[in-house]
Amino acid sequence: MGHQSEAVLENNLIKQLVGLDYTPIKIQDGDALVSNLKNQLEVFNKTIFSAKEFDAILNHLAKGNVFEKAKTLRDYFQLTKDDGTSFYVRFFNTEDSSQNLFQVTNQISLEGSYKNRFDVTLLINGLPLVQIELKRSGIEIKEAFNQINRYQMHSFWSNHGLFQYVQLFVISNGVNTKYLANNKLQSVKQTFFWADANNKNIRELPDFADAFLNPNHLGKMIAYYIVINETHKVMMILRPYQYFATEAIIHQVKNSNDNAYIWHTTGSGKTLTSFKASQILMELPDVYKVVFVVDRKDLDYQTMNEFNAFKKDSVDVTDNTQSLIRQLTDNTKLVLTTIQKLNNAVSERFKGKIEPLRHKKIVFIFDECHRSQFGETHERITKFFEKSQLIGFTGTPIFAENASKNDLGKRTTKDLFGNCLHKYVITDAIRDQNVLRFGIEYIGKYKNKSNTFIDIEVEDIDKQEVLDSHKRINKIVDYIIAYHNQKTFNRDYSALLAVSSIDNVIKYYDLFQQKKESGEHDLRIATIFTYGTNEDSDEAQDFLPSDEVDFDVLAEPRTLYESRHTRDKLEKYIGHYNAMYGTSFTNKDSSSFEKYFQNISKRLKNREKENFNHEQDRLDIVIVVNMMLTGFDAKKVNTLYVDKNLKQHGLIQAYSRTNRILGEQKSQGNILSFRNLKKATDDAITLFSNKEAIEVVTMPDYERIAEKFDEALKLLREITPTYQSVDDLESEEDEAQFVQAFRKLMRAMNVLQSYTDFNWNDLPIDEQEFEDYKSKYLDLYEKVKQDNQKQKTSILDDIDFELELIHRDQINVAYILKLLAQLKGAKTPTTAAAQRKIIIDLLGGDIQLRSKRELIQKFIDENMPHIKDGDSIEDEFEKFWQDQKVLALGKLCEEEHLDKAQFKALIDAYIYSGREPIKDEVFQCLDNRPSILQARVIGDRIISKMKEFVEVFVNGMMA
Hints:
The protein is an alpha/beta fold. 46% of the residues lie in helices and 13% in strands. The strands form seven sheets. Strands 1-4-5-6-7-8 form a six-stranded mixed β-sheet, sandwiched between helices. Strand 5 (115-124) and strand 6 (127-134) form a beta hairpin. Helix 18 crosses helix 19, helix 19 (502-517) packs across helix 20 (564-581) and helix 29 (813-824) packs antiparallel against helix 30 (829-845). The radius of gyration is 30 Å and the shape is globular.
């Protein structure tokens, strides 16, 4: 019955698509797909291809990976025809997508490593550009996502790699429907609901098909709204609010000269939206140039990198005003600059050089349309460029309530930029899971039940001398040392510490450093501040440089930065950073200081990358006054410690450094406030959404999360009353129910453990029983993995076990060896048995250690009885491990007929670089190169075994 339900869903969708002007076609296999491709390309290109000519086209289409094929799709292919003439073959019409040919088919079978059958495929000009995977109602949509990932591995590459031309996927269970770009690096978090212009999600499959899959809209999405990211070599697709904002901007520029702005909340991807808008605008015939304007040099650096990621070399670095003048007067269509340089460009000194631009239509796009634009600079720019059109982006608009007064009076975003073209506020983003909620804890504040072991003055501390006192700051430093690991998943994430002045930066940094030198912690801490204000700041802003300071003279002492002591302190702190990371920065010249800042930024951002060296390159905490509290995005920052007054847009901007989406483990942005910012927080959330938004934007308190945990535990016990009863589950359906119930419990635990109030004694399950359930959960995961290797299919295949929720860095082999030494020293058999059980439980409960469990147990059973004392365990274990490693490598090479020396060199290169070898490198280690038919399967199998070998014998072996 379940299958029939999915079939009905499929058939109804096909009927609907035919009604939307898709041509239905029956394609059963790869051969039929190729035959149809030839016919469609001939009609589309208005020609006939001979067999030889079409072979040349197929060979061209087969080249490259998914990313390269996305570019092939949008390009022409110069074909030499049989008569010697050249013909330019086109695969997709981007200028007029209505000229493309749309077909729909279903149940295409392809055989690669495994045989797969795909649900519904949309063909455009014969190429499969959209793949739709359906699940019956009641099955979670994530299973369709995981199914797509399997297809990518198992069969999309077969049959000339034509399915690698898929641009986007659609996944649906009928009631929930989402779309995503063909990007193997993304998680299910990067799947999106489509929505209307008012941000109302369109979930039902028939409604989605009408709105999104109609040929006009789908053609436009593929032609204009898929972004080719050159840095990461992936495709990205715009979310609905980004699409509607871009469309609104294009309409505004085409039909009006009025200024306007877009209000999209911080963290919702404004740079991607503004880039896409810039890219389309610069192709409009009436637009002479697009100038993208940022208001800080640090934003300039990050935005420039992001722009160049979307389109390589789309932006040249404007190092100085002269460089900007060159770009404004040459044929550069898109210019990225700072408002300060733009202000210089329209000054008397340079005005003559850009005089010819005065009457040209230039569109200025402002990345954050407030702060420095509210002064005279904005007026000068608009006065000089008479036909300018200004489009502003902001996550936190300036309203009358939060406007600051200057010489020109109080001015709002609307005063400067006109009407708001599109809104997407923080509540929209949280509802759509595009940003996370904030988990806010006010430390030391009116909480009877709290793990706050330090009495930190929060309530009655209006006096500056109390706020800045050594005693209070010392308590906060102790608190951060005590709870940092808990907040950051054992330093898997980084944190910012925002303080009120440069003097306090120095106090904090010196205390952390003293405690580090005395052995109280080993956190890696850095700081960055510029020569700006040294007073308590009411709102978070970024200064690199400040409005008044030119970066060229940053190294010179300023009025508020006359203290040689302060400057020497910063140089000393940069010296500590250099010692930690082998760098050589200084604040004695502006260029080196700017590079120091960039290095900190990159270090935090690069934590997201797969090959990031955690032990070598990790940075735990950055202490700041204002810098990095706006415009800086790093998904691996999940915590903000606050010891400064924040309000309104400054508060939302600062908090939003923590709430970027990244996998299941990061469930919220942690805010630990050492000041009473409760009213300021509630007021800011109300201002930028509405009064009811407070509960949407912030996490519930600890007690409410504990209730959710209790509910999840009750459901788990209904399915499996004890952990032993997992073994009695009769069917895969029952096992799937257990996996989903325990996963829900893990999610609640993941959130609970991020609260400083967390205590196992509050929960109706003890830690040991939870770990026992977890072992059973992981046993099921191992079973699915083994079944896959045996090419068995299972309904558990596509269930996401969310293993990142189990990751625990603090338990590694070095930790187990310490426990083994304790086991050897146990005084009684009872103590030894208890110690052995702890070790075995740990081996079963940690993902990385499970792969080593069998060997470590073998060491305990066979080697431990012959070891005389605990002190020699580490040496004996090292000898045992190396022996086992040699045996395992020998066995692997024998099974796969590999040259041992060559294959070991390949493994060493993989361990060093983190780069997976290409199959040709693997084949060079083989006695005989496999046939073309066998190459893919054999290559995948050997690489899989190599990864397993590294996982067992290398990963997690360091202390």
